Amino acid sequence: MILEGNNVDRSYKEQVDVVIIGSGCGGATVAKQLAAEGHSVLILEQGGYFTAQRGDFDQRSDNMLARIDGGRGMHTSVNNELALMYGNCVGGASVHYWADCWRMPKDRCDEIAATGVTGHSYEELTPYFEQIEKDHNVHFAAPEYYNTMNRLFNEGAETLGWHAEPTPQARRGCAKSGHCYQGCAYNAKQSQLVTSVPAAIEAGARLMADCQVESITRNAKGEASGIEAVFIDRASGRANGHRLQVQARIVVLAAGGYSSAAVWLRAKLPNGSGQVGKNFLCNPNTFLYGLYDREIKLWENIPAATGTSQYRLATYKNDEYVEGGYLLHPNQLQPEFLALTLPGFGEDHRELVSQLPNIGSVVSWIDDELPGEICLNSNGDAEYHYQLRGVDELKARDSLKKQAQLLFATGAKEVIVPDIAGTRLHSVDEIGVFDELPITNGNYLFGAPHPAGTLRMGADPATSVVASNHEAHEVANLFVADPSVFPMQPSVDPSISIMAWSYVAAKEINTRLLSLG
Amino acid sequence: MSESAFSRRGFLKAGAGAALLLVGYQAARHGLGGDEDYRLLLAGEVPQALSIKEFAVLSSVVRCLVGPAQGVPTTEETRTTARIDRELMIHGGKLLQDLKDSLLVVEHGTFLEGYGERFSRLNAAQQSSFLQSCRNSSLDLRRQVYSGLRFLTMFFYYSDDRSWPLLGYQGPWQAIKFYEGGNRIENLAPLSTLPSISNITAKVSA
C-alpha cells in the first residue's frame, strides 16, 4: 500500500514494529529485509511517488527537478560552491543516479575497520554485494550502449596509457534514452523505486509519500518510540493540514546524507559527542568540456559505460601529494544543463551553445577528506557549509589536468573550463594553468552528489554518533541506515555500499526486534 | 569544522551587509524609482514572489544574460522571468531573499561604477558591460550576484522546449505531463498579449 499526500484527507495514528524515515538505498533496503522477516514496517518519504507507468518521468529537466530533486535543483552550499544533488521522492537519490554500481573497495573497508567499526569488512559485506548485484542486474554494458563520449574516453585512455575499465551498471532493458538523471521513463534503471520499494511492499510494508517527519519521539527512558510528521501538498510544497503520529518499537533514520543529520538536529536528539552534522563529505565533482570537430551529443545513451579507477587512490611521496584521489569518467549532461553550465552570457554564450552537439565532457568524483558541516539556521532549515581546501583542492586540480589531457588526447580542439571566467585551453601544454586557476570562493560550481559522514559510525561515543550495529550511541532503538554513517567516503559511487551496509543494519534491527519479543 | 576554518560568506549572506548598505545609500541618493517606472518592464506579467520593481529589474537582467533573440524565442515569449518568480514563490526562504538582494545590487550598484543611471535604464551594451564587471569582480559578493542570477536565467530559458532546436536537441522522447508543483509556462497564469521587446524599450526610453 502506498498512500500519497494528495489522497490524504485526515490525520493518521499508526502503531508498527518499525518506522523508516526515507525510501532510498538505505531505507528501502531495510524495509525490504524487515518486511520479509514478518515485521510490520511503515516507510515515510518526504517526496512524492512518481512512476513510469503514470508517465511522470517526462524527461523535462524543469518538471523532473521539481518532482524528484531535493531543493528542486536549486540548493547550494552556503558559499555557493556546491550544487547539492539529492533525491526527494520515493526511491530517493537512486531515481536520478547514473546506476554505476561499484562495491566499496577492500582497501576502503580496511581503512574503515581501522577506525574501530566492526561488522562491515569486505568479507562480511561480500554476500550482500552478491545479492544486491543479482537483484539489480549489475553487469557491464554491451558495446551498443557506449555513446560517443564513452568510446572517446577509452581511446583517450589507451593513448595516454591509462587503464580504462567497464563500469558496473544496474539496468534491465535500457532504452538508451540518455535521460537517466531525470528518472528512467522505461523502468530500466534499477533504482529503489523499481527494486527494493516494490519488494518491500510485496512483503507487506506500507509507504506514505509526501510525508515530512518533524520529530522523533522518545519515551521516558529516552528510547526512540516513534515519529510525528505532516503531509505535504505537492502544488505548494506546504503542509496540507493533516498529521501523522506513529508509535514504533524501532525508528530507522534513512533520510539520506543531506537530510538525516538535519532531521536529528530538528528533533533535538542528544548530541553529546558534538558530532551530529559534522564530518560532512560530498564527493565534489570537477568537470571540463572539450570542443570537437565532430558530433558528440553528450545526452545520448548511458552516461558512464566506462571509466578509470587508476587514480582512485591518492599517491604521496615524502608525505607530499603527488596525484590521484578521484574517479574519472565520461560525463553526461542533458542539453539544458549543458547550456546552463557553459560559461559566459549574451552573444558569447550563444555562440558556445550553438555548438552544443560537438561538446564532450569528462567528470571526476573527488574522494574528499576535509569535511564541512550541516547545521540549522534560525528557521530550522538545513545549511551546508563546505569549502574545498587542502589536499582535496590538490586532488581537484590534478583531476582537471587529467581531464584536459584526456580531452586533448581524443581530438578536442579546445578545452572549456566551466569556471566563472570561462577559461579556455588550446593545447595540453597549457594544463599548468590548473595549478593556480581560482576554483574556490564561488569561481567554480562543483556538483555534490554523494553526501556522507554527518552521523558517523564508530566505537567511541565521544567521537561518533552511531555504533557498529547502526544504533545511535545516545538513543536506544534509533538506527541509522544511509551514507550519513560512513566514517569516510567509499571512494567509488556509493549506492551499493549504502545498500550493503543497510543489510547489516536490517540484520541488527531484526535481532533487536526478536529480543524485544 | 570551526567557524573560522573558512569564511562564511554565503550567497549574499555574511559579509554582504556593508555592500548592501552602500548600494542602499546609492539608491536613496539617486532615487529608488517607483512602481510606475518599472511597471512598463513587466510585459504584462503579474509578479507573485517578487515586487514589481524586482520583477522588472530581473526581466532586464534575464534579457541581457540570454542575449539577442536571433532565431530563438525572446525571454518574454519564454516568460523566463515569470517562471523564475514562480519558483521563488515555491521556494521562499533564503533563495528568495538572495535574489531580492542580488537585484538591489544590480539595479543600484551601477552608480558605484559611474554609470549615472539605474541598471534597468541602461542601454543593452551598458547592461552587458556592468554584468561583465560583476563577473570579473574581485569581490565575492558581486561574482555571486552574477552567478546566482545567471544560473536561474539560463536554467529557465534553456528548459523551454522552443530553445532546443538551437541546442541541436531532438528529444525528449516522452509526452509532457503537467506537474502541479512545477514551474513551466503551463503552471503560470495565461497572458493574453505579449508586448514586443521594441515596444517595451521604447516606452522605457520615453
SSE arrangement:
The complex is a heterodimer of chains A (517) and B (206).
Chain A: E1 2-3, E2 12-21, H1 25-36, E3 41-44, H2 61-68, E4 82-84, H3 106-114, H4 122-135, E5 138-140, H5 148-160, E6 165-166, E7 168-170, H6 196-202, E8 206-208, E9 211-218, E10 224-233, E11 238-253, H7 260-266, E12 285-291, E13 306-307, E14 315-317, E15 320-323, E16 326-330, H8 335-341, H9 346-353, E17 359-366, E18 373-376, E19 382-385, H10 390-409, E20 414-416, E21 424-425, E22 446-448, E23 478-480, H11 495-516
Parallel strand pairs in A: 1-8, 2-3, 2-11, 3-8, 4-22, 11-23
Antiparallel strand pairs in A: 5-7, 6-13, 9-10, 10-11, 12-17, 12-20, 14-15, 16-17, 18-19, 20-21
Chain B: H1 16-30, H2 35-39, H3 52-66, H4 80-91, H5 93-109, H6 124-135, H7 140-158, H8 164-167, H9 197-205
3D structure, described in words:
The mean pLDDT of chain A is 97. By secondary structure, chain A is an alpha/beta fold. In chain A, strands 1, 2, 3, 8, 9, 10, 11 and 23 form an 8-stranded mixed beta sheet that branches. A 5-stranded antiparallel beta sheet of chain A has the order 16-17-12-20-21. Chain A contains 11 helices and 23 strands. Chain A folds into 2 domains: 2-137 and 178-275 and 454-516, FAD/NAD(P)-binding domain (3-Layer(bba) Sandwich), CATH 3.50.50.60; 143-171 and 283-448. Chain B has one domain (8-205). In chain B, 52% of the residues lie in helices and 0% in strands. Chain B has 9 helices and no strands. Chain B has helices at 16-30, 35-39, 52-66, 80-91, 93-109, 124-135, 140-158, 164-167, 197-205. In chain B, α3 (52-66) crosses α6 (124-135), α3 packs across α7 and α4 (80-91) packs across α7. The interface between A and B is large, with 62 and 60 residues.
